[in-house]
Design a protein that fits this description.
The protein is of the alpha+beta class. It is built from eleven helices and 18 strands.
Length: about 400
């Protein structure tokens, strides 16, 4: 949509091929339906949050950063607000307001919207000259491919764009999941399925070396762990084929070890005559207690007044660093975004034009760029779409 608007604003005659029954299907489910439009960030912050080929985006981000995107949508009549972590959302908390504003702009610019699926490119003498759709052929001076990755295939991002680009001679780097739930080794998490933890600390270890830390909320599931904290962490875990990953959850991040130890002593005084397994109700959610008791190695029915200092230290250690061994990510179809895509070395970083086929442009998740959570991936879509649309129109005037 952004690419089509950008091209039409330059005076180009634009046809938008869309196989879905409505535009912006994936946009409408982002941010749990609230749409995290962008991040209120400058060029350097955007680059720092794009671990995969961020440098490639230097030119497009320098012309259209997160602040520009926020102002752009406000000009389209969608008031914006900035939340924690500089995440930008519509004031209405409705993703449909964002896609609706883009749709109105397309109509105002007289972009022809056609319900058809692109099947292949028509190329003659090294230049694109049209698109073959399922229903008919569309002659064109320039074509922008903006079909998304392979995550959430129900929204239409089925990898078709990668196939079309590959048939035109482009290299597609391996596609894998990013911002994705994680599978555990073993079944500790499965036993706590449905338990949501808020305000916990998370540390990711790669081959026993500290890789990443964060704070927020997460969820135990039948396969492992999910939730915002986990999705963010997964973007840093990029070598499952070669490296081992472990999570450590700080269940009481507000308390340092000394303060937490005092809290344990006071809890244990209160429950002095109880069994250990019945003395943790004030400290932990119910679903977590049996697993915690098992991990401490303390007999569940040992009386609290008989616990040794060493046993208390064991519990304290687990409260500050509850371990989850990670087997790998969930499939890419469960991921929020796709990592991998059309090789950036084959694309002009200023115009988004193919270096192999004249008049062919790329935008968005189709390209081998991806970022952390927080509105950065949509910002990639806006900035690359705007650049591709502008260049495609200018080069064919």
């Amino acid at each position: 949509m952004m690419a089509a608007i950008s091209a039409a604003e330059q005076g180009a005659q634009v046809t938008l091929l869309e196989p879905n029954e409505r535009l912006g299907k994936k946009l409408n489910i982002t941010g749990k339906g609230r749409c995290n439009v962008t991040n209120d960030a400058d060029l350097q912050t955007l680059l720092a949050n794009t671990p995969q080929n961020g440098k490639f985006l230097y030119s497009v981000f320098s012309r259209f950063d997160g602040r520009d995107a926020k102002a752009y949508f406000e000009q389209l009549g969608v008031p914006m607000k900035t939340e924690r972590g500089n995440r930008v959302f519509p004031v209405s908390d409705r993703a449909f307001d964002v896609s609706g504003a883009l749709e109105r702009r397309l109509k105002a610019l007289k972009v022809a919207l056609v319900r058809d699926r692109a099947v292949s490119l028509q190329i003659e003498d090294g230049a694109v000259c049209g698109v073959t759709g399922e229903q008919k052929e569309y002659p064109a001076d320039a074509v922008i491919l903006a079909t998304g990755g392979v995550s959430y295939p129900a929204t239409g991002s089925t990898g078709e764009g990668h196939r079309i680009a590959a048939e035109a001679g482009h290299t597609v780097t391996p596609l894998r999941a990013s911002l994705v739930p994680l599978k555990e080794k073993g079944n500790l998490c499965a036993r706590m399925q449905g338990l949501s933890l808020r305000n916990v600390g998370l540390t990711v270890f790669e081959n026993n070396k500290k890789l990443y830390t964060d704070f927020g909320e997460m969820l135990f599931t039948h396969f492992g762990v999910s939730g915002p904290l986990i999705l963010s962490a997964s973007a840093h875990m990029r070598h499952f084929d070669k490296k081992e990953y472990r999570l450590e959850i700080d269940l009481k991040p507000a308390l340092d070890e000394q303060t937490l130890d005092k809290r344990l002593l006071s809890d244990f005084e209160k429950h002095a005559n109880s069994d250990f397994c019945n003395a943790l109700d004030d400290l932990l959610p119910q679903k977590l207690i049996p697993v915690m008791v098992e991990l401490t190695g303390i007999p569940p029915h040992q009386k609290v007044h008989d616990l040794t200092r060493e046993q208390r230290r064991q519990l304290l250690g687990l409260l500050k660093a509850f371990p989850v061994e990670i087997a790998g990510p969930r499939p890419v179809t469960d991921a929020i975004i796709t990592s991998g895509g059309i090789k950036v070395g084959e694309i002009n970083p200023t115009t988004m034009e193919s270096k192999l086929v004249k008049g062919l442009y790329f935008a968005g998740e189709l390209i081998d760029v991806d970022a952390y959570t927080g509105g950065f991936n949509l910002q990639i879509a806006w900035a690359t779409g705007k650049a591709a649309g502008f260049a495609a129109a200018q080069n064919n005037m």
